[in-house]
C-alpha cells in the first residue's frame, strides 16, 4: 500500500507541476504588460520599467517560471492587483464556501445515487428499475442552472422553505446548512443520475460473476451478498467517477454561486476575470487544480484500500 | 433384459428396495425449461437418477446438454427465466425440495448441499480475504470469530495448504489456480454436507494438478462420507474417480450405470460414439469430450422420438416414436430402442 500511495502522490505532484506550467504560459502569453495594467494609464515609462524589474518581468523565462513555482510551493501566490492583499489569503477565505457546497453535492449524489443504482440492479427489468432509469436520464439531461432556477423559484420564492441567496448567517450552523441545500442540489442532481446508472451497470456485471454464484451456493443471505460481496466491487468505478466529478462540480459552482449569490471560489474567479485581476485568477485556478488533483489521489487511495488487486499491482 | 418406463428407470434400480437406505440425492423425472425470445427452451426432460449415500456419481455430456442447469435446479439457483416444470428432487429423507420456498432452499445450501465450481479464478471474491470468506460461510454457527478462523485453518490444513494461518489473511489473487481450487474444496466440505456437487472442478487445472485435486477430493469424500455429484468433460477422470455415471444428451439421461458397466459395455449409440472417438479412452488426457458429427437438436423444438436420432448411425423409422429405456444388466440402463442390437 505504501508503494502504491507514493506513486499516486508522485503522479499528483507531476500533474500540479504541469498545471503550473500551463498557467504560467498563459500569463506569459496574455497580451498586455502586467506592470502597465497594474499601474494604470497615467504611469510614466520609468515607473513601468521600475515595476517590471521589481516584478522580475525582465528575467529570462525559465527564471521567471522557477520563481513562480518556488514561491507557489511556499504558499506565495503573489498579491492581488486591486487591494494588494496576498492572493492565497483571499482564495483561502472563499475556498471553504465552495468546498462545503461541493461536499454537500457529493453527499446528495452518493446517498441517493448508490442505493438507487443498487435497487435498479436488483429489480432489473421491473417497474422500479424503469422508473429509476427514466429519472436518472432526466436529471442527467437537465442542465444544472435550470435546476437551480426552478429550485430557487419553488422552494425559496414560492414555498419559502429555504433561503434564496447567501451562505447563511456566519456562526449559525443551521442557517448555513439551510443555505447549502438548494445550491448543492442544483450542482449534485445530475450526479445522482450518473452514479445511479453507473452503480446499476457495474452491479449487474458483478452479480453475474462466479464468486457471487459461490456465495449463493453457500446460502449467504441475498442482502449480505449484495451489500457486502457485490457492492464492494461494484462501487469501484463510482469512486473513480467521483474523483473526476469533483472537477465538474467545482466548475458548476461558478454558476451556482452566482445564481444563489453565495460567496466562494467560483464567484471569486468570475469577478476577478471581469475586473482583469489576473493574479487572483491564477491563484484561484491553481488552488482549485491542486484540490482537484488531491481529491483524485485520494480516490485512487480509496480504490487501493478497497481492492487488494490494485495494491498488489504496485508491489 | 426388461423394458421399463423411461422416467422411472433409475428409481426401479436404486430406491424401491425397502432395505436399502434412501439415496443422498434422488431426482425423479425432472424437467426444466427456460423462457426465451424464441419460445420455451426445454433444457431438461424427464431426468431421473439417484446418487447413493457415500458414493460418487459422474455426469458426462457435451456442452449445452444441461449439466449446469441440472446443478442449478438442485441448488434452487435457476436463472430468473428458468422453471422446474415437472418432477421432484429429494435430498436424503426429505420431501421434494423443488417445492421449498427460496428461504427454505437457501437453508439447505452450504449446509446439506455444497458446491465446487469450475473456474477457480472467479469462484472466490477478489476483494475479500480468504479468511473472511471462510468465516462468512460459517455464519449460521454461533462460534466466535476466533473459533471460526480456527475451523478454517483446520480445513485448509486438510486440503494441504501450507502455512494456513497466514493464508487466511491473503486475498484470492495471492493463490495459484490449484490452491484456489483446494480452498474451494475446503470451503465446500467445511460444513460436512450430505451432498457435494462439483461442476468440472478440475477442467481449468493442468494435468498434474488435476490428478492431485482428484485424489484429494476422493480422500476427503471418504473421510466425510458424503455423496458426490461430479461433472466432467474428461472421461478418464470419471473412470478414475467415480463409482457410477450418467451420460446426458440434449437434456436427457441416455445411459446410466456403474462406471465399470458403461465403460465395459457402452449401450447407447451416443456413449459408444464418445468412447469410440477416444480410442485411448481413459489413458489419454483430453480436457474436452471427443466431438461427434452433427449438432445438438434445437431444445425449443425437441424431436418427437429419440433425441439422438439426427446424429445416430443406427437410426431407423421407429426411433421417431417415443422411446423407452432398456435395462441392459441390473442397474445399467440405456434409453435406446436398439440397445440389444448395439450391445450384441
Ligand atoms: N438462463 C437461460 N436462458 C435460456 N437458455 C438457457 C439458460 N441457461 C441455460 N440455457 C440453455 O439450456 C441448455 C443447457 O445449458 P447448460 O448451461 O445447462 O449446459 P451445460 O451442459 O452446463 O454446458 P457446458 O458444458 O457448456 O457448461 C443450453 O441450450 C443453454 O443454451
Ligand atoms: S433410439 Fe434409435 S436414434 Fe435413438 S439412439 Fe437408439 S437407435 Fe439411435
Ligand atoms: Mg455448464
From TrEMBL, chain A:
| Record key words, sorted | Cell membrane, Membrane, Transmembrane, Transmembrane helix, Transport
Where's it found, cell-wise? Cell membrane
The membrane topology noted for this protein in its Swiss-Prot or TrEMBL record is: Multi-pass membrane protein
Q: Which residues cross the membrane?
A: 9-30, 97-122, 134-157, 177-196, 233-260, 280-306
Q: Which residues form the ABC transmembrane type-1 domain?
A: 95-299
Keyword Transmembrane helix listed: yes
Q: Does the keyword Membrane apply?
A: yes
Pfam families referenced in this protein's UniProt entry, alphabetically: BPD_transp_1 (PF00528), BPD_transp_1_N (PF19300)
What highest taxon heads this organism's lineage? Bacteria
Write down the PROSITE patterns for this protein, in alphabetical order. Answer: ABC_TM1
Cite the PANTHER family for this sequence: DIPEPTIDE TRANSPORT SYSTEM PERMEASE PROTEIN DPPB-RELATED
The entry's family comment says: Belongs to the binding-protein-dependent transport system permease family.
* Protein's recorded name: ABC transporter permease
State the organism named in the record: Pseudogemmobacter lacusdianii
Amino acid at each position: 500500500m505504501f508503494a502504491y500511495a507514493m506513486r499516486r502522490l508522485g503522479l499528483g505532484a507531476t500533474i500540479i507541476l504541469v498545471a503550473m506550467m500551463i498557467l504560467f504560459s498563459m500569463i506569459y502569453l496574455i497580451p498586455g504588460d502586467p506592470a502597465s495594467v497594474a499601474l494604470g494609464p497615467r504611469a510614466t515609462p520609468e515607473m513601468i520599467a521600475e515595476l517590471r524589474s521589481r516584478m522580475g518581468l525582465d528575467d529570462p523565462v525559465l527564471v521567471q517560471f522557477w520563481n513562480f513555482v518556488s514561491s507557489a510551493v511556499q504558499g506565495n501566490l503573489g498579491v492581488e492587483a486591486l487591494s494588494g492583499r496576498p492572493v492565497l489569503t483571499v482564495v483561502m477565505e472563499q475556498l471553504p464556501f465552495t468546498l462545503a457546497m461541493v461536499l454537500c453535492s457529493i453527499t446528495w449524489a452518493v446517498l441517493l445515487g448508490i442505493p438507487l443504482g443498487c435497487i435498479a440492479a436488483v429489480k432489473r427489468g421491473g417497474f422500479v428499475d424503469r422508473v429509476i432509469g427514466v429519472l436518472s436520464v432526466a436529471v442527467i439531461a437537465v442542465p444544472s442552472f435550470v435546476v437551480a432556477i426552478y429550485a430557487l423559484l419553488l422552494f425559496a420564492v414560492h414555498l419559502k422553505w429555504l433561503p434564496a441567496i447567501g451562505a447563511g448567517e456566519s456562526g449559525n450552523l443551521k442557517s448555513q446548512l439551510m443555505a447549502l441545500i438548494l445550491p448543492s442540489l442544483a450542482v449534485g442532481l445530475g450526479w445522482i443520475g450518473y452514479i445511479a446508472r453507473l452503480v446499476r451497470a457495474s452491479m449487474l456485471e458483478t452479480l453475474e460473476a462466479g464468486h457471487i454464484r459461490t456465495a449463493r451456493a453457500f446460502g449467504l443471505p441475498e442482502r449480505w451478498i449484495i451489500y457486502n460481496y457485490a457492492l464492494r466491487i461494484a462501487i469501484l468505478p463510482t469512486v473513480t467517477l467521483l474523483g473526476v466529478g469533483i472537477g465538474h462540480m467545482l466548475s458548476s459552482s461558478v454558476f451556482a454561486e452566482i445564481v444563489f449569490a453565495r460567496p466562494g471560489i467560483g464567484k471569486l474567479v468570475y469577478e476577478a476575470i471581469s475586473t482583469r485581476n489576473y493574479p487572483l485568477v491564477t491563484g484561484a485556478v491553481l488552488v482549485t487544480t491542486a484540490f482537484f488533483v488531491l481529491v483524485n489521489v485520494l480516490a485512487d487511495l480509496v480504490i487501493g484500500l478497497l481492492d487488494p488487486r490494485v495494491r498488489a499491482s504496485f508491489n | 433384459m426388461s423394458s421399463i418406463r423411461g422416467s422411472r428407470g433409475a428409481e426401479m434400480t436404486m430406491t424401491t428396495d425397502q432395505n436399502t437406505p434412501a439415496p443422498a440425492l434422488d431426482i425423479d423425472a425432472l424437467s426444466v425449461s427456460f423462457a426465451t425470445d424464441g419460445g420455451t427452451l426445454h433444457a431438461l426432460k424427464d431426468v431421473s437418477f439417484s446418487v447413493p449415500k457415500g458414493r460418487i456419481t459422474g455426469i458426462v455430456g457435451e456442452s449445452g446438454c444441461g449439466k449446469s442447469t441440472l446443478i442449478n435446479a438442485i441448488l434452487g439457483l435457476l436463472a430468473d427465466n428458468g422453471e422446474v416444470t415437472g418432477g421432484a428432487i429429494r435430498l436424503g429423507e426429505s420431501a421434494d425440495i423443488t417445492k421449498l420456498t427460496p428461504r427454505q432452499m437457501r437453508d439447505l445450501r452450504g449446509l446439506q448441499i455444497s458446491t465446487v465450481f469450475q473456474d477457480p479464478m472467479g469462484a472466490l471474491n477478489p476483494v475479500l480475504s480468504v479468511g473472511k470468506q471462510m468465516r462468512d460461510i460459517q455464519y449460521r454457527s454461533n462460534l466466535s470469530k476466533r473459533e471460526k478462523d480456527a475451523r478454517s485453518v483446520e480445513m485448509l490444513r486438510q486440503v494441504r495448504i501450507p502455512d494456513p494461518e497466514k493464508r487466511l489473511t491473503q486475498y484470492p489473487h495471492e493463490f495459484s489456480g490449484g490452491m484456489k481450487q483446494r480452498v474451494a474444496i475446503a470451503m465446500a466440505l467445511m460444513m460436512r454436507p450430505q451432498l457435494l456437487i462439483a461442476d468440472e472442478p478440475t477442467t481449468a487445472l493442468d494435468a498434474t494438478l488435476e490428478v492431485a485435486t482428484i485424489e484429494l477430493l476422493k480422500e476427503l469424500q471418504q473421510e466425510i462420507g458424503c455423496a458426490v455429484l461430479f461433472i466432467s468433460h474428461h472421461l478418464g477422470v470419471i473412470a478414475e474417480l467415480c463409482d457410477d455415471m450418467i451420460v446426458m444428451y440434449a437434456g436427457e439421461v441416455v445411459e446410466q450405470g456403474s462406471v465399470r458397466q458403461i465403460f465395459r459395455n457402452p449401450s447407447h449409440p451416443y456413449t459408444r460414439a464418445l468412447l469410440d472417438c477416444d480410442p485411448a479412452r481413459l489413458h489419454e488426457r483430453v480436457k474436452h469430450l471427443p466431438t461427434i458429427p452433427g449438432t445438438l437438436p434445437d431444445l425449443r423444438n425437441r424431436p418427437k422420438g429419440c433425441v439422438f436420432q439426427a446424429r445416430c448411425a443406427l437410426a431407423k423409422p421407429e426411433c421417431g416414436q417415443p422411446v423407452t429405456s432398456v435395462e441392459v444388466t441390473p442397474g445399467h440402463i440405456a434409453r435406446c430402442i436398439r440397445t440389444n442390437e448395439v450391445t450384441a
